Amino acid sequence: MFKRRHFLAGMLTLALVLGIAQVSQSQNQTLTIYSGRQEALIGPLIKRAEQELGLNIRVRYGDTAELAIAIIEEGRNSPADIFFAQDAGALGALQKAGRTRAIPAQIISRVDSRFRSPNNHWVGITGRARVLAYNTRQVNRNELPNSISELTQPKWRGRVGWAPTNGSFQSFVTAMRLVEGDAKTMQWLQAMRNNGVVVYRNNTTIVEAVGRGEVDIGLVNNYYLYRFLADDPNFPVAHHYTRGDAGSLINIAGVAILDTARNAQDAQRFIQFLLTNNAQNFFARETKEYPLVEGIPAPERQLSIEQINPPRIDLANLADLQGTMVLLQRAGVL
Question: Is 224 one of the annotated binding-site residues?
Fold first, then answer.
């Protein structure tokens, strides 16, 4: 009897030790995110997710396209559980490469179907509108163009700025190819070049130039202006939206769970967290991006997505960046 009790006590102790080890291993499990979004934009929210979800989150920050390539090159050895991309094109590219897995529909159904994968392999977290930023001291509102095609008119010669090496501009050109076709997009690019469009490094430098009066209009994303207005409420720049063409594209920043994810359950919990009302309001308030969960209001002083009337395209098709790069080079823009 004594031996039996001793044996049972030993087995109980072993089971307890193994159970504690399993719990400890679960608690110490790390969720790894490859993020094309800057740490300044999402770092505070990730820290909040760690606290609220009890997760240990490790983030590798970098350029969205470069991280997508890294994931493909790493293959089955990739440590990433989640890819947080700056645009839909990169998410679509990874999906086409077979590197993503389906996210449960009940998690992503809060997002309008326009801004998520048709088969649930990625979901938009925030939206970013293409806008025309214009100098309010040099341009009358009633002379602003209704479409981006009007920017090739002689009256806009040398008065428009763009950033052709910037990823958001290239996504915009890809959208134009989907809406207008390659031939018309090529004609527009060449006409803009011939009309003296001024080249800048990125969206920020364009908005700075518009504010200085160096150019009158800049093709940018919606949220850059508000960083300048925070420092100077009288900064002389406002937004104008074209209607129904690629100039009013709503692209997304979104996430996918990778096929190699070792921590898929916590990856799903993290996505649920990003789609909570609190997280969506954080983006609207802090980064001035559009919440994509239905019912959450647009950022202050910005038109709603419905008011903008963006072109209806499958955002996953923005993945053809290579075709856009070839077109930009043929047009003499790059």
Answer: yes
